[in-house]
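Kindly go through the following sequence and its backbone structure tokens. Advise at your convenience whether the structure tokens fit the sequence:

___
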Amino acid sequence: MAFKQKEVDKLLAATGRRCCVCARLHGVQVHHIVLPEEGGTDDIDNAIPLCPNCHDEVHGRPGRGRTTRSYTPEELKAHRQRTIDQVAREQRWAPNTSEWEEDKKLILFYAQCLDRPAFRTHFHLELSFSDFDKAMEDTIIALNTGYWSTRDGTLIERARGKVHITHPPWRDKVDAISSIVEEIRRRFHSELGLDRMLIHWPLGHFPQLGDRMDRRFRRDRAVGSWMDKKRQEAIEIMNSMLEEIGLRGLPAIDE
């Protein structure tokens, strides 16, 4: 027994041939939500497109000592419906539609995250490297979750995370910005040796690191040039989206 081919075709079209768990494109197969040996039927309501990795995760037998929760049929159906809704929104997306307006609001929020001194000042001219590190961390959180950190460190919800962007090219660009900022922070921590610490603490907890950072980074123009280049890449990606929206871009670092 197997799913009816016509129904499979419709499901794949409705989900855009995406894995309904991780959103990977194309490399999917249609699997049973509840396996036949566990009472699952070949009705299309029991079907879900999954990539090989997510299929193994969904139907892999719990190993000894497993601490993660198993997927329930209800959760998998929710993932399937979320994917169908996302694909439908993408198909409706066009300039000046409601989907476009929602994306525009998100892009403007993410642009605000980059419109700050940490993305405008040459790295070797930074007044506080501890503040720089915190700005990179806050930017990653804002892009991923839509939460903004206030001066006292309180997180407040200002928007939604980048996964909620409907237009795939814009979603890919914000993903790229997030990856660049994460790469900057990893390099920053690596240069300081923070990645070798067993426990990561905010830099402000280690006053002696401030002196070490100043001595290290004020003299190392190669590191500073790399930091400037990567931040400029993030700005240029953001500006390409702002241009599409019809808005002025963010200033370059050397401006």
